[in-house]
Amino acid sequence: MKIARLVKTICICGPALLAPLAAAQVTDPPVVRDAIVRLRNGVNINDFLASISSTYPGTTVVDDIASRNIYRLSLTEGADPVQVDQFFANLANQPNSMLRWGEAGYEARTAESRTGSVYVSRPASYAAQFETQYPTITLGVTQAQQLSTGRGVAVAILDTGVDASHPAFGAAVRNDGFNTILNNTDTRDIARGVDSNGNSTADEMVGHGTFVAGLVTLVAPETRILPVTVLDSDGVGTTWSIGKGLFYAIDRDVEVINLSLGSTYKAQIFEDAANEAEARGIMIVAAVGNSASTSPARYEYPGQLKETIGVYAVDRNDVLATFTNYGGDSRSLEALVGAPGASTGDPNATIYGPLPGGMYGEWEGTSLSTPLMSGGLALLYAQHPVWGSLPPIDPNDPSDPTTLFETILGTMLPPASVNISAQNPGAGSLLGLGRIDLEALISVGPPQPAPGDINGDGVVDLSDLAQLLADFASTRSTADLTADGIVDLSDLAYLLAHFGH
Ligand SMILES: [Ca+2]
Ligand SMILES: [Ca+2]
Ligand SMILES: [Ca+2]
Fold first, then answer.
1. Read out DSSP for 405-474?
2. pLDDT at residue 424 tops 60
3. Which pLDDT score, from 0 to 100, does residue 124 have?
4. pTM for the full model?
5. What is the domain class of 110-441 according to CATH?
């Protein structure tokens, strides 16, 4: 059944790699009646709803992120999203307001949904090309893997889901993912019969999350993947589904969060999650979009936030991909990098990735550049296991301590970025740091510790065992050797299997 669907996809898109299915959706629409509010600490949601009942009678709670006092609301029918934003802004500014902020909910999508691109699948020939594809050469992946394979690190893939059974992943995909569209734990990357963008084609983006996750493990083969489904199988989500997925990933002890998606609406829930991720030493990497634009009207979030790394696409020759957005406001330009994402169909200039059902395909887009960067950061984190156990920085600390994000962005990425201005005349000031070079990033060292060497002293012995037992049942610990978010018996078994080495 699945194979039949994929073959049908090939027939739709024909020989062209980038085959528009729908008119380009430049700006994401609001979700009817949808709103998100964050209340001040200690405020009860029912008290808040009572306080707005004269303006928005009949408002109900649809979902929540209770740990952050954030709620998804269904407002009065006919509520105008622009007026909703204004109403909440005024309310939040009042003295002793119950509200920290509120905003209308908007749609979001994969960069590829915006341009109607679908993958091409020719399963017989692609498994070998996946391993040797041009980004591995451009980025120096083989050389980087001499020092790090991403061991002990987890990357959250916020996307359409991940096919955990694909041979490309081995046992890399964690089983503690979540689906914020369906509000359950079903993170399979499967067709669910939805046509959310209303173009008469259902399930256009099945496989997107699997393809993206595969590019992370291509670069960082020992990194664990946390699947978080925030888009439906048509590639459409909301600022709520993504925001909730961000907080979910933050709470599951990952080091990197990959977002091969975006919304043109600059949602406050993205800002809050990005700020919290930065305080906790988690890097968010996000696509800047496929609208072939430098215009602020086409900016996509979270990729344009200054607390995230935005990734644009280049081709094999470091020329900007024809579809890629680039540029940004002055605050986000410094957090902008390029990575391979263009495909020509020439096997030496094409991006390959895994697809559900054990298959492989080719695709292009900033969605594919993004996980190459995420995988590179996973290699970097594996070299510094202590990063994953640092206590969160207090955002109210008056000394304003330097965050890990600032350190990586300010001192580690610039010398590991290649200036590609010469290949892109006229775009020079809008290319951020330039194209990332993972060999340069990782070669600074040190090598990642040997398996089981928790304290990094070169041997797996009783001191490592003592640290594991001291940290037993805790999260955010260097003793979480299996990178599944908790120190437990599986870590003990892993350590004992490598004891004395
Ligand atoms: Ca559709
Ligand atoms: Ca040791
Ligand atoms: Ca573990």
1. HHHIIIIISGGGEE--TTTSTT-GGGSTT-EE-HHHHHHT-PPPPPTT-TT-SSS-SHHHHHHHHHTTT-
2. yes
3. 67
4. 0.95
5. alpha beta
